[in-house]
Known about the structure:
- By secondary structure, the chain is of the alpha/beta class.
- It has 2 domains: 1-110 and 262-359, 3-Layer(aba) Sandwich (Isopropylmalate Dehydrogenase); 129-255, Isopropylmalate Dehydrogenase.
- It has 12 helices and 12 strands.
- The strands form 2 sheets. Strands 2-1-3-12-11-4-5-10-8-9 form a 10-stranded mixed β-sheet, sandwiched between helices.
- α1 runs parallel beside α12 and α8 (222-231) runs parallel beside α9 (243-254).
- The chain binds 1,4-dihydronicotinamide adenine dinucleotide (NAI) and magnesium ion (MG).
- 1,4-dihydronicotinamide adenine dinucleotide binds at residues 17, 73-76, 89, 92, 260-261, 277, 280-286, 292-293, 296, 334.
Amino acid sequence: MKASIILLPGDGIGPEIVAQARLVLENVASQFGHEFGFASHPIGGIAIDEFGDPLPQATIDACKTSDAIMLGAVGGPKWDDPSAKTRPEAGLLKIRKELGLFANLRPIRLFAELVDASPLKREIIEGTDILFLRELTGGIYFGESGRSGSGKDEAAFQSMIYSVGEVERIVRLAAKAAQGRDGRLTSVDKANVLEPSRLWRQTAARVMADEFPDVKYDVVLVDAMAMHLINRPKDFDVVVTGNMFGDILTDAASMLPGSLGMLPSASLGDGGPGLYEPIHGSAPDIAGKGIANPLATILAAAMMLRHSLNLNAEAEAIEAAVQQVLADGLRTADIARGGEATSTEAMGAAVVQRLAGAQ
Ligand code: NAI
Ligand code: MG
């Protein structure tokens, strides 16, 4: 197949890790007989420096006509001046909005080879493989807010609103993801207290019964979920939840595997291009040193193949190659635990080599 892929390397380690993900994608294309076209565009601090805008219109236009987008990271101390008119992160929020990316997918997968990197006990986390879907463009973060009164009577409010349509679209996406995995979906809400959660629960139950009778479906309250995640993470397959609950739960869950440098994410909308990126930031403390872990971005490339290009075998080939380089003992500094560390480029090259060997 032919696909046009936009690369938004961004700042800090962004260009270093995106370069490795690109090499992996190019290798997949040649192995499996696809034609991937790549074009790089500026976003974040580098775009501010060059164009005075963290998301130039040309970048937006290129993204909108592409099949998928790969982002490195944005931000850094150079652009942290609080008096600055615009910040790199504004580019990130705007691109999500421009593309209507309402679902954030975050797989929490623990590679057996890295089980000792987790702060949790081996027997609790071994085998953990959860896919979170967090609603990204609605809920309390986007609700009306305000203040009234003064002194001790000063009060603030922020409203949480979800519509049936917003719930339906993310639940459908989550259920489809479950069909491609272990066939189980858990919806997390606070329906014992919150009205939007009751609407969420009602809507999700209807969608699941009408459209996905083959998916095993259950609901868990968010406070209980916080406990289960730490206590029995391997019991979950796909988890779908609202914006705020997802924000908190995914950050907690990202600590299960113990390393930021291993975790990819995807943001998807209705049919248009998806945006794929590592969950970590631009890591200014190690930028330019050639030691960043490229595996989160490479795993994000696998998500791109699976979710935007419908290339499942290709996605699995990348994930298997990553698993193999870990089994070979290769570790970048963040996962080396004091042992010998390999460079960003050597790690990328090892994945490419394993991919080539797989065919
Ligand atoms: P960070 O994720 O960039 O770094 C946290 C720590 O993890 C650092 O010690 C870093 O060296 C390490 N680290 C992160 N990714 C790594 C990798 N691939 N390999 C090895 N080590 C890695 O978070 P921090 O330091 O809070 O933020 C730095 C900048 O990144 C800030 O300007 C922040 O706003 C921005 N940021 C951007 C994000 C994005 O573009 N999506 C997300 C989070 C932060
Ligand atoms: Mg957060």
